[in-house]
Every structure is written in structure tokens, then in C-alpha cells.
Design a protein that fits this description.
With 335 residues, the protein is of the alpha/beta class. The chain is 41% helix and 17% strand. The chain has 12 helices and 12 strands.
Length: 335
């Protein structure tokens, strides 16, 4: 028999996850007709709220949950190290929750977090919707989102330690314009949709200010098993832009190999920048230009922020939005 979840109740009652959670927790901000509709859905489906989860706010476990996509572990190693080191200093236990496309559903992760009675949650951006964060908020679980900037939210007890990827892309494109380069491509990365959205926003903004329209957002579907296969096909009928921006190392190296095999020279015919820096970018020739992003510090700051949110009874004056700095690392793929 299918296990009934809070998502099923929300769908049956045609309300948000947060509304169902408020009814379960006897919140007085829900209209009576809505409360009745939710209760009817609960009774009809036979949903049984977890008693331990309902008493979550009354106890502390000194346990922090870290939630991230399974495929992103290798790209967030330094952030994880920063998180873990600070957690050890404050004697917090760490519980990992991973999401995997088609295998681990977000509603299962949420219910697991609630039932595990964790004190706080570190979320890697792209994992949770605002509605899902509202459910955790109803259980009074403080959260810190690490990675890219989250949109302004009315949800309390949510912190954000981030890089402003929109500004990064905007500044990069503006510097290209100053050199007379307007032919720029941005390669999509479906593993980091929030970062990609902000990078594209920054590129669009720079183009609009110059009175131009950005039209070289390179997106490929799931039929391509690797960036290399896609680029190999793409450059049979296209020329590379004068500047190509990728997010991850695998995309950057795939571009480098495919363009070389197509007869183009980097950086003579096409310059390239990979946003996220790692050791592999200097293991290839030419060395790939990138950005120095303080990933370890981001993890450490995120965990430190969460500990402050946990111990301070009134954290309304606490700065819960912390922007981290970055710097450009010029290497051999740019002039």
C-alpha cells in the first residue's frame, strides 16, 4: 500500500504544504473552512502525522541535517569540509540527506528530516522550494541555504550564505564588452539550476544595458550523456563564440577538447572561462581561467550562522544574509 504523505494531503485539499502543516500543528492563522477541508482530506486518506515530529520544537538533539543532490558531492567537497569542521567545534552531529533524480524524492527527505528531530538544516541551493521550506519552518527548524543567493523570502529563520553569481556574470560580460567582444555563449548546467538562472540573469542585464539581446544560451537535453558528445556534434555546424562561459570543470574540459578537435584554437579563436574552480582546470592544456570562490569559508560561515540561530532566542537582529567575495583567476584560456 502506498504510504500517504503530507504532499498527498495538500493535493487532496488543494492547499499548500505549509497550510497542511499549520493545521497539523494547530496554528491559529488558518481559516476555519480551510482547516475543515484539510482535516477532511486527512481523514479520507488516512494520513497519520508523526507524534514525535509534532513535539520536535520541545527537544534538542544536537544534530544538524545537510541536504544536497547526490551528483553534487564532488563539486561541494570544500564547502562540506568547512561545514564539518565547524560542526565538530560545536559538538554537533551531522546527518546527510541526499536527493537523486527519479530515486530520492524531496517529500521523503522532508519527512525524514522532521522525524529525525534535527535541530537545524543546511540546504544546498536547488534542493528546496519556498513552499517546502515553509513546512520545515512550521516545525520551527532553523535553516541556512548555502551556494547561490535565494530570492527574498518572508519565511523567518532562513539564512543564506552565498556568492552573487548574477553580479559575477554581469561583471565578466561587461569586461568583454570593454574589449570589444559581444559574441559570448553561456553553457547551461542542469545540476545547478539556481546558479545558472543567476548567471543568465547577469548576462542578460549586461546585454540589455548595451542595447543588445543575448541569444547564445547553449542548452542541451538529456539525450546527450556528456558535454563532450554534445559539443562534438554542435561544432560540426557551429563556430564557437569569441568567449564561452561554463559553470563546471567537466563542461569546460569537454569544450576544450571538442573545439580543438574541430580545428579551433583556444584562446586565439575562442576564449573560455569556467566559473567554479578546481584542481582539474590546471591539469589540462591550456590551463583554464576561472574564479577563486572561498568554498571552505562558505561552509564554515554557514555552519557558524546556523549555530548562532540555534542558540540565540531572539535572532531578529542577526545578519542572516552573508555575501562572500570572489576574484578572477586569469589563466591560459583568456587573453
Amino acid at each position: 500500500m502506498k504510504r500517504i504523505t503530507i504532499y498527498d494531503v495538500a493535493k487532496e485539499a488543494d492547499v499548500s504544504l505549509a497550510t497542511v502543516s499549520r493545521v497539523i500543528n494547530d496554528s491559529n492563522v488558518v481559516r476555519e473552512d480551510t482547516r475543515l477541508r484539510v482535516q477532511q482530506a486527512i481523514d479520507k486518506l488516512g494520513y497519520k502525522p508523526n507524534a514525535i515530529a509534532q513535539g520536535l520544537a520541545l527537544s534538542k538533539t544536537t544534530t544538524i541535517s545537510i541536504v544536497m543532490g547526490e551528483k553534487l558531492f564532488s563539486y561541494n567537497e570544500k564547502i562540506l569540509n568547512g561545514l564539518m569542521d565547524v560542526a565538530k567545534i560545536y559538538n554537533y552531529n551531522i546527518m546527510f540527506h541526499t536527493t537523486s533524480k527519479g530515486i530520492s524524492k524531496m517529500q521523503d527527505v522532508i519527512e525524514s528530516i522532521i522525524k529525525s528531530r534535527v535541530d537545524g538544516v543546511i540546504l544546498f541551493n536547488d534542493n528546496f522550494s519556498e513552499e517546502e521550506m515553509e513546512v520545515l519552518q512550521e516545525y520551527q527548524i532553523p535553516m541556512v541555504v548555502v551556494g547561490s543567493r535565494i530570492p527574498k523570502t518572508d519565511i523567518a529563520n532562513v539564512g543564506n550564505v552565498y556568492i552573487d553569481f548574477e553580479s559575477l556574470a554581469y561583471e565578466l560580460v561587461k569586461s568583454c564588452f570593454e574589449k570589444g567582444i559581444t559574441d559570448i555563449s553561456l553553457v547551461e548546467d542542469k545540476l545547478n539550476l539556481s546558479m545558472m538562472e543567476q548567471l543568465k540573469s547577469g548576462v542578460d542585464k549586461a546585454y540589455e544595458e548595451k542595447g543588445l539581446k543575448f541569444d547564445k544560451y547553449i542548452s542541451y537535453n538529456d539525450s546527450y550523456k556528456s558535454s563532450y558528445v554534445y559539443f562534438t556534434e554542435y561544432y560540426k555546424t557551429h563556430q564557437p563564440s569569441k568567449v564561452v562561459i561554463t559553470l563546471r570543470d567537466s563542461q569546460a574540459i569537454a569544450f576544450l577538447n571538442a573545439t580543438s578537435e574541430a580545428g579551433y584554437d583556444v584562446p586565439k579563436d575562442a576564449q573560455m572561462v569556467c566559473v567554479l574552480n578546481n584542481k582539474y582546470l590546471t591539469m589540462v592544456r591550456p590551463h583554464i581561467s576561472s574564479y577563486n570562490i572561498p568554498e571552505y569559508d562558505m561552509g564554515a560561515v554557514a555552519m557558524r550562522l546556523l549555530t548562532k540561530m540555534l542558540v540565540e532566542e531572539n535572532n531578529s537582529k542577526l545578519d542572516k544574509n552573508i555575501e562572500m567575495s570572489y576574484s578572477f583567476l586569469a589563466r591560459s584560456t583568456t587573453k
